[in-house]
From TrEMBL:
Region ranges (Disordered): 433-470, 780-799
Pfam families (UniProt xref): DND1_DSRM (PF14709), dsrm (PF00035), PAZ (PF02170), Ribonuclease_3 (PF00636)
Annotated protein name in UniProt: Endoribonuclease Dicer homolog 1
Keyword Magnesium: yes
Stretches with biased composition (Basic and acidic residues): 780-793
Provenance organism: Trema orientale
Family annotation (SUPFAM superfamilies): dsRNA-binding domain-like (SSF54768), PAZ domain (SSF101690), RNase III domain-like (SSF69065)
Molecular function (Gene Ontology), one example: nucleotide binding
Transcription regulation among keywords: no
Domain PAZ: 158-296
Length: 879
């Protein structure tokens, strides 16, 4: 078993599981491995537990242990026992700062203090104090900061300054004085250090021998104001109250040890215009060695162990799929079953949506065939209702519940913070644990517990992760009925792909959908066609069969397929029953063709292809292209006029080179023209002995040209909606009717941009949306041309004047940074518009006039608009 892990934006690695056989270990060895496992995973998952007291769940009986690289014959010899004993035997675990959650111990954990993840503890701390909750002594504007003198007084780190002679002790070159020991600079590279002043951990990337604490402190990226700290030593003194003793020591360059991430989701993707350099940028910090504690766990071990939650999540999911496979009892790969059980909300590289599309079409087809053959006396309306009662989402949902599929479905994005390793249970920062306190809470009186949920100041956390619920969700999940119905269809699709119709029928029988019938019994119930000769003489069978490129054995089926209900004829039924089964067989065959032709197409695009290929409008145009409409037997003059008008419109469409609307033309097709295409498909299916291969052989050339991803048209209403969503613009339709004419107006941000009239409201809406798109595109073209002309005047070389240009000018002239002010913020929630004004205080002319920009859909664009106007003003003042 192998899987892809998305380590970074541009880095993917493959993890594989290899079975090495059973091993025999002693009781003492098992205790050592358990202790190592708990120490390792407590750091990885940031859960402070003790190996001797932690509970073990028998349902998760596995351990993570280090192994050596050589492949020994005996698997037990592959375990790195030296590292196990070294890690579990060290005294470093006695220091609370070396165990999990040191920031909680120091009182600097933002979420424990009620802090907002985005504001480093500022927002909710302020909220909590407003309602009388106790404030924490480490509270600060940019996050909680521990008082280092209290840390030293607690004995967690030695007080080097208390020993006067320590300042003059000579250390050999390459040695570093750490917070609790001295170590070789070479040995420190690749290790993890804990910052004693903050409780944060860092990977040691290198030792900067050319930098000391007396070096100047750098500016923050993008900050152009005055320097706040003169040196690193000044920074630590002002912010943390630390008076560094060994300022001449080289600094440690490190990068933060992050929490476990969901490595199964390819969420690291390039944004538009983002370069590889910016994507792969790593942020480093520079730490004085005397503030750092060397962690007992190697950095490489932590980095590797942080992948384990994602690996085990996939293993656990695969085990569920294997279990379901054994229950269904049909040889289908477990990986495909897992795909059918995985929802798109998991944000993984696969989901059930493609298989669900295929399974939906196949299920509709087999149920339609079953009902058509079993109930020859039922008309089309009755058959449709019976099919709905067998395959509706609610019915499939009931089938799924009866088989317990809800226990196997993966519907939530993996959250490592809620994943539990054996012996290491997850801890949620929002829940207060009994006995958990910070260093600064020691010595304070313990107040009685109160039920905070009943307090009037209780408030919700609107920053929950994907898959989280407001309360404890460890005991239940929320799944919609449609999700369970979709999984049933996806399982049908997967079994059809892997094992054909036999496998799919086996799955449907297991789930409870009975569609099997006795072929001999069906043959006996079918009556031969008995069409009067007077009717047969008026049908041009040669031309019709030539257009279809097939010769019918029972021409009575063909006559029935082209007979409309308005044409009364003794002995001839109308096409509705054949249309019922033909609609299902064409849907199945076209969906199957698209599914296996475009294997890499996303589910959404595949659905659009299917919708464009399988619709009455497209089938009506197929009927006209191959002159099937001229053979229609009907008795309605109004219908005849509709057909003539539609044929003229289609001929105009066909006269355009390379044009194919695939049912999205400007003329509404008479439904009867699409129906006879489907009824002919049903007639071919019966005449060929229920062979779908013959049906596809006939219809594949008839449907040519088939829609492709390149030729797929987008419905004007949908295209306009997506465009307005991207531009953050408000879209509104207003429809009125005057007699037989419907009028639809399109408004974007309250401005009318399109209008159309048509007897049918939906067609009027489509035409109005199309007119609006043309008007908006013309407007964008004109604005782009005007902007290009303006940019020609506003550009200096290749640099466009923006906010950054204005900031650079202020920096060069030693002016304060520009002052921006929000003048107006309006519009609906989904289409906000911002207007900003800007001015700058020049040293020689004072404050400039305030320049107000144009309303923009984002704050950044609004500030840019104002900055451009101020730059023009400065250019006039100083030119």
């Amino acid at each position: 078993m192998s899987m892809d892990l998305f380590i970074a934006r541009t880095m993917t690695t493959k993890a594989s599981l290899v079975f090495r056989g059973s091993i025999g270990i002693t009781q003492s060895q098992l205790a050592s491995l358990k202790s190592f496992h708990v120490r390792l995973m407590s750091i990885v998952l940031d859960v402070d537990v003790e190996p001797s007291t932690t509970p073990w769940d028998p349902a998760k009986a596995y351990l993570f242990v280090p192994v050596v690289s050589d492949n020994s014959v005996d698997p037990i010899e592959e375990i790195d026992w030296d590292q196990v004993e070294k890690i579990i035997g060290t005294d470093a675990w006695c220091n609370p700062l070396q165990r999990a959650r040191p920031d909680v111990y120091l009182g600097t954990n933002e979420r424990t203090l009620g802090g907002d993840r985005r504001e480093y503890g500022f927002g909710k701390l302020r909220h909590g104090m407003a309602f009388g909750q106790k404030s924490h002594p480490t509270y600060g504007i940019r996050g909680a900061v521990a008082q280092f003198d209290v840390v030293k007084a607690s004995g967690l780190v030695p007080d080097w300054g208390a020993v006067e002679t320590q300042k003059h002790v000579y250390f050999p070159k390459g040695k570093l004085i750490m917070a609790d020991t001295s170590t070789s600079a070479e040995d420190l590279i690749g290790r993890i250090v804990t910052a004693a002043h903050s409780g944060k951990r860092f990977y040691v990337d290198s030792i900067c021998f050319d930098m000391t604490a007396e070096n100047s402190f750098p500016r923050k990226e993008g900050y152009l104001g005055p320097l706040e700290y003169s040196s690193y030593a000044d920074y630590y003194k002002q912010k943390y109250g630390v008076e560094l003793i060994y300022k001449q020591q080289p600094l440690i360059r490190g990068r933060g040890v992050s929490y476990c991430k969901n490595l199964l989701s390819p969420r690291f993707e390039h944004a538009d215009g983002e370069s590889d350099e910016s994507v792969d940028k790593t942020y480093y910090v520079f730490l004085p060695p005397e503030l750092c504690l060397v962690h007992p766990l190697p950095g490489s071990l932590i980095r590797g162990a942080q992948r384990l939650p994602s690996i085990m999540r996939r293993v656990e999911s695969m085990l569920l799929a294997v279990q379901l496979k054994h229950i269904i009892n049909y040889p289908v790969p477990a990986s495909m079953i897992l795909e059918a059980l995985t929802a798109a909300s998991c944000q993984e590289t696969f989901c059930y949506e493609r298989a669900e599309l295929l399974g939906d079409a196949y299920l509709k087809w087999v149920v339609s065939r079953f009902l058509f053959l079993k109930y020859p006396q039922k008309h089309e309306g009755q058959l449709t209702r019976m099919r709905q009662q067998m395959v509706s989402n609610f019915v499939l949902y009931q089938y799924a519940l009866s088989k317990g599929l809800q226990s196997y479905i993966q519907a939530d994005s993996f959250a490592p913070s809620r994943w539990a390793a054996p012996g290491v249970l997850p801890v949620f920062d929002e829940d207060t644990k009994d006995g958990e306190s910070s260093l600064f809470d020691q010595g304070r009186p313990v107040t009685e517990n109160t039920n905070e949920k009943n307090q009037p100041w209780d408030y919700e956390d609107d920053e929950m992760e994907d898959g989280e619920l407001e309360s404890d969700s460890s005991s239940y999940r929320v799944l919609s009925s449609k999700t369970l119905a979709d999984v049933v269809e996806a399982l049908i699709g997967v079994y059809y792909v892997e094992g054909g119709k036999n496998a799919a029928n086996h799955l449907m029988k297991w789930i409870g959908i009975e569609v099997e019938f006795d072929p001999d019994q069906i043959e006996c119930t079918r009556k031969p066609s008995n069409i009067p000769d007077s009717v047969l003489r008026h049908v041009d069978f040669d031309a019709l069969e030539r257009a279809l490129n097939i010769t019918f054995k029972d021409r009575g089926l063909l006559v029935e397929a082209i007979t409309h209900a308005s044409r009364p004829s003794s002995g001839v039924s109308c096409y509705q029953r054949l249309e019922f089964v033909g609609d299902a067989v064409l849907d199945h065959l076209i969906t199957k063709h698209l599914f296996f032709t475009y294997t890499n197409l996303p589910p959404g695009r595949l659905t659009d292809l299917r919708a464009a290929a399988v619709n009455n409008e497209n089938f009506a145009r197929v009927s006209v292209r191959h002159n099937l409409h001229v053979h229609l037997r009907h008795g309605s003059s109004a219908l005849e006029k509709q057909i003539r008008d539609f044929v003229k419109e289609v001929q105009v469409e066909l006269s355009k080179p390379g044009f194919n609307s695939f049912g999205l033309g400007d003329c509404k097709a008479p439904k009867v023209l699409g129906d006879i295409v489907e009824s002919i498909a049903g007639a071919i299916f019966l005449d060929s002995g229920r062979d779908t291969a013959v049906v596809w052989k006939v219809f594949e050339p008839l449907l040519d040209p088939m829609v492709t991803p390149e030729t797929l048209p987008m419905h004007p209403v949908r295209e306009l909606q997506e465009r307005c969503q991207q531009q953050a613009e408000g879209l509104e339709y207003k429809a009125t009717r005057n007699g037989n004419v419907a009028t639809v107006e399109v408004f974007v941000d309250g401005v009318q941009v399109g209008i159309a009239q048509n007897p049918q409201k939906k067609m009027a809406q489509k035409l109005a949306a199309r007119n609006a798109l043309v008007a908006l595109k013309d407007k964008e073209t004109a604005e782009a041309k005007e902007k290009d002309e303006e940019n020609g005047k506003k550009k200096n070389g290749s640099q466009t004047f923006t906010r950054q240009t204005l900031n650079d000018i202020c920096l060069r002239r030693n002016w304060p940074m520009p002052f921006y002010r929000c003048v107006n913020e309006g519009g609906p929630a989904h289409a906000k518009r911002f207007t900003f004004a800007v001015r700058v205080n020049t040293t020689d002319k004072g404050w400039t006039d305030e320049c107000v920009g144009e309303p923009m859909p984002s704050v950044k664009k609004a500030k840019d608009s104002a900055a451009v106007l101020l730059l023009e003003l400065l250019n006039k003042l100083y030119s």
